[in-house]
Amino acid sequence: MTIVNLSDISIELFVAVMFFLLIIAPLVSLGVLRLFQGKKKAGLSLIGSGVLGYFIFQLIVGLLD
Q1: Is pLDDT of 44 > 80?
Q2: Which of 17, 23, 43, 53 has the smallest count of CB within 10 Å of its CB?
Q3: pLDDT of 65 strictly over 70
Q4: Is 65 in a helix, a strand, or coil?
Q5: CA-based angle 25:20:39, to the nearest 5?
Q6: Is 17 left (phi over 0), alpha (psi -120 to 50) or beta?
Q7: What transmembrane ranges does the database entry give (predicted)?
Q8: Would you tell me the crossing angle of helices 11-19 and 40-64 to the nearest 10 degrees?
C-alpha cells in the first residue's frame, strides 16, 4: 500500500475542488434528480444555479490572477 503525498497540492487547487464538491456538483445532481421527478422548473433552476456558480467562480479566479 502506498501513501499519497498531499503536500504538493496548492491552496488554490484545494479551494477549487472543495467549491466544486460542496456547491456545484450537488446543485447539478439535485437538478437532474428533479428533472427525473418531472419537476422541470425546479430541475432547470438548480442546474442553472450550478452553472452560474461555476461561472462566478471562474470570474473570481480570473480576477485574482
Answers
A1: yes
A2: 17
A3: no
A4: coil
A5: 20
A6: alpha
A7: 13-36, 43-64
A8: 170
**Which residues are within 8 A (CB) of 25 and not within 5 positions of it... i.e. 6 or more apart?**
50
Residue 20 three-state SS: helix
CB within 8 Å of 53: residues ≥ 6 apart: 23, 24, 27
C-alpha cell read off for 53: 456558480
27: which 3 cell numbers?
A: 446543485
Q: For 45-59, write each residue's pLDDT tens digit.
A: 999 999 998 898 888
Apex CA 11: angle with CA 25 and CA 4, to 5°?
A: 85
Q: Show the cell assigned to 59.
A: 470570474
Q: Are the C-beta atoms of residues 17 and 37 closer than 8 Å to each other?
A: no
H helices of the chain, where?
11-19, 25-36, 40-64
